[in-house]
Specification:
It is built from 15 helices and 17 strands. The protein is of the alpha+beta class. The chain has three domains: about 5-65 and about 135-225, Alpha-Beta Plaits; about 230-280, 5' to 3' exonuclease, C-terminal subdomain (DNA polymerase, domain 1, Orthogonal Bundle), CATH 1.10.150.20; about 300-454, Dna Ligase, domain 1 (2-Layer Sandwich). A hairpin with a 6-residue loop joins strand 5 (about 85-90) and strand 6. The radius of gyration is 25 Å and the shape is globular. Pfam families: IMS, IMS_C, IMS_HHH_1.
Length: about 450
């Protein structure tokens, strides 16, 4: 099997023309020099970081994923933490947003409750998330991606698919070398690292980027796809979570190779639409294109409490503050939503959502809050909650949003007051210079979770 897995790099020079090179000889990721022979080390600089693959210069679809992004940004800004385990997340009642690789070796994982993470790695440095800083760095990374190709499909703040088909003439080198150069630049110019997966389809590009983290560069070609996938567990397939993997195991299916022996009709008979996906992805068949733009489906904000809350009155100011945050983001994006969604997570970590569709779309914190309040009232039955969130979905243009309410005569006054508060907030740089009675003087200690665009 010829799957190439290569970890990374420092900095350096440029490359000579590709025409005289053989893909099996490859190039050096440190200096980008084309190799004259299939040696273990670069014949120009002596580096062992040489990538070779029979299809190296034919593949154009990549998945780029920044390594432990939040933690990497914090370590960049605080060099004294370079060799220490770092966890980004809330207090003892929060969860892990991400952890550096030192902490991961100790058993820390994303979404792990913080108390468990600190049990696994008590010496870790815990840092509260600074989403504004991470978003700014994410925009820098995104701009660098878009300088390579217009076909960039973001998946999150720190990862994306790229299609570099047809860009060889523009860059003067094939996609593999463009990506290697990108990984060097992101470390030199931004101070973080990324892992890259190169393949012929999205599914395998994503799989490849996970093979050699951190600072990895892996290639999976068409010729090896079936053999490469055969030994992998079914959980490697996108969409196969705990429930489906348990069902597959009950049916005696643990590896992708076992799926490869089952006919499409049989998989669809057993697993419905998911059976069709299992059939194609198990064989490395994925015709999804890289889509540069995704419509945002929802905007939400949530927070985790330092201690569980059950009383309706204790939850009101938090719900109001979150509603105002969602409203500001809707207005900034010039969109409105028809459906208000309330999210709650109990002390047992089980989540539940409740939603209500409005007759007209809204951008107003007042409508988001009052609707969320009605939903919340029904759920405050003595249950203790560790998290609350509010959001809106069914998004669209705000042209017909928030018409005058003929039944609620005070709604118009509240909307005007909200507009005045927004104007004051904008004047003073976004600071909460004016608060409503719902939140004024009623502070509850919470741990913010990242806002969500889905």
């Amino acid at each position: 099997m010829t799957c190439a897995i290569v970890t990374t790099f420092p900095l350096c020079s440029s490359a000579m023309p590709i025409s005289s090179n053989y893909p099996e000889r490859g190039f050096c990721r440190d200096c980008l020099a084309l190799q004259k022979a299939a040696c273990k080390r670069c014949d120009a600089c002596g580096s062992p970081r040489v990538v070779r693959h029979a299809e190296l210069y034919e593949l154009n679809l990549a998945h780029i994923d920044c390594d432990a992004f939040y933690a990497a940004v914090e370590k960049r800004d605080r060099p004294e933490l370079r060799h220490r385990p770092v966890i980004i997340g809330g207090g003892k009642r929060g969860v892990v947003s991400t952890a550096c690789y030192i902490a991961r070796i100790r058993g820390v994982r994303s979404a792990m409750p913080m108390f468990k993470a600190l049990e696994a790695c008590p010496e870790a440095v815990v840092i509260k998330p600074d989403m504004e800083k991470y978003a700014a760095v994410g925009r820098q990374v995104r701009a660098m991606m878009q300088s390579l190709t217009p076909l960039v499909e973001p998946l999150s703040i720190d990862e994306a698919f790229l299609d570099l088909s047809g860009t060889a003439k523009l860059h003067g080198k094939p996609a593999a070398m463009v990506l290697a150069d990108f990984s060097r630049k992101i470390e030199a110019e931004i101070g973080i690292s990324a892992s890259i997966g190169l393949s012929y389809c999205k599914f395998l590009a994503k799989v490849a980027s996970d093979l050699a983290k951190p600072r990895g560069f892996s290639v999976i070609g068409k010729q090896e796809a079936l053999e490469f996938l055969a030994s992998k567990p079914v959980t490697v397939i996108w969409g196969v979570g705990k429930a489906l993997s348990a069902t597959l195991e009950q049916n005696g299916i643990r590896t992708i190779g076992q799926l490869q022996t089952i006919e499409r009709t049989e998989l669809m008979r057993r697993y419905g639409v998911m059976g069709d996906r299992l059939y194609h992805l198990s064989r490395g068949q994925d015709d999804r294109r890289v889509e540069p733009e995704h419509d945002v489906k929802s905007i939400s904000s949530e927070t985790t409490f330092d201690s569980d809350l059950a009383a309706f009155d204790d939850l009101i100011p938090i719900l109001r503050a979150l509603s105002e945050k969602v409203s500001r983001r809707l207005k900034a994006a010039d969109i409105a939503g028809h459906t208000v969604v309330l999210k709650l997570k109990g002390s047992d970590f089980k989540s539940k959502t409740r939603n209500r569709r409005l007759p007209d779309a809204t951008q107003l914190a007042d409508r988001i809050f009052t609707t969320g309040l009605e939903l919340l009232r029904k759920e405050t039955d003595g249950t203790r909650y560790r998290l609350i969130g509010i959001g809106v979905s069914d998004l669209g243009a705000p042209t017909t949003a928030d018409p005058p309410d003929l039944i609620d005569a005070q709604a118009r006054k509240r909307a005007l007051a909200e507009g005045a508060i927004d104007a004051l907030r904008e004047k003073f740089g976004g600071k909460p210079v004016v608060e409503t009675g719902y939140t004024f003087g009623r502070k509850v200690r919470t741990r913010p979770a990242p806002d969500q665009d889905n």
